[in-house]
Structure formats: C-alpha cells, structure tokens
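Example record

One chain of 150 residues, shown exactly as stored in the release files.
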Amino acid sequence: MKVIAAGNDFYGDDGVGAVVLDEIRKNDILPGVDLIDIQTDALALLDHLEPGVKTVIVDAARMGLEPGAVAVFRPEEAALRIRGDHLSVHGFGLAEAFAMARGLGVMPADVLIVGVEPARIEINRGLSDEARAAVPRVLSIIAAEVRSDG
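Predicted structure tokens for this chain:
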C-alpha cells in the first residue's frame, strides 16, 4: 500500500498531506506502507501509481466544506468534489493525472483520496488550527484502509 501526500508545506494548510506523512513516520504507525510526498507535481503522481497497489492520496482541497472538514472520495469523483485543485495552477490537476494514468494503464483499481478543507493557504503560515485538528481523523482513515488491505 502507498500513501501519497500532495501539496506545498510552505503554503499553510496546503501542507496538510506532508504533516500527515510526518506523523506516520514519527510515530511509526503504519509499518510497511510506502510514504511518498509529490508536493505540487501532479505529473509525479504518475510515477507512483501502480496497478494492483492500493493507494491513498492526502491533499488539501477546496470542497465547499467547513475549514478542517475531511472528505473521502474516489478518483472518478475528483473533478466533481474539488472546487479548486491547487495542482491545476501548474497546468495539471488530480483529475487530469487520473485520466492520464488510466490512459497509460497504470491506474490502480483501489485509490482513495482524503481531502482536508483548508482554512488558509498563505505563504509561510503553517497549518491552521482547523487543519491540524483534522490530522488525527486523516490518520484514522488511512489506518482503516491499511487494516482493510489485509
């Protein structure tokens, strides 16, 4: 299984995925799980998707929810759920990465996206209280996925 963080930890809540990975590493809570930080490069996601490998992607996502809210969805819902994909600022977002992965035949059948609604995305601000409070919920979701993977 892989856990992939997307986002930029220099932009406030956009770094929530990196914080989740840090917590997993620091507390050694998911041994044997590959932890990958693609930062803001959605194309890099293609390098880490493998058919047959369960994958969880953690990202800050504007979904129209309360700040700090956590939503879980599948790749086919990405374009509908995410109102402003920060990765698309660079010309390529998660929905496009998934479409390309399908075209290349590298899209895993089992991908889960865990989105955290940001309170603020501002340079050098660190996580908001709302995003920080969401981290244990994200960890719980990931741990449940690991358990269901056998």
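Notes: The first strand starts at residue 2 and ends at 6.
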